[in-house]
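1st attempt posting a full record on here, be nice pls
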Amino acid sequence: MILITNEVITTLEQAMEVYKSYILRFKIETVFKFLKQNLGWETFQIRDFNSIANLLALVFFLVGYFKELEDELKKHPMCEFICKLALSKGKITIFFLLKGIEKLVAHQEVKKWMEEENITQEQIDQMIKDHFS
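the predicted structure (as tokens):
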């Protein structure tokens, strides 16, 4: 790994401190990427500071929790399945895990909508065939 910094590095300990800072920054950026992509951070409707702080704390906790358990999660068949939903090509990462969960949630929302509207899968298939073939 090559890290570029404007810090003067003369010892292994200094290099390790820079490395740790980059790793921490990566975790923070992962949280904000998740907020933007999965929770619509740019179009955030909550304006109450305490609510925003609570949501941020929850997201940081969840991403941190996944990061801490990443090695164990990579061995779990359900994580492999969820990552495959995200088209991970065999990679099991937090990014693909979150994307897979997002797809599962979207599927559940569509399924619920179909039940509420009394729409069958055959009707959906026919509509797709009629309009996109």
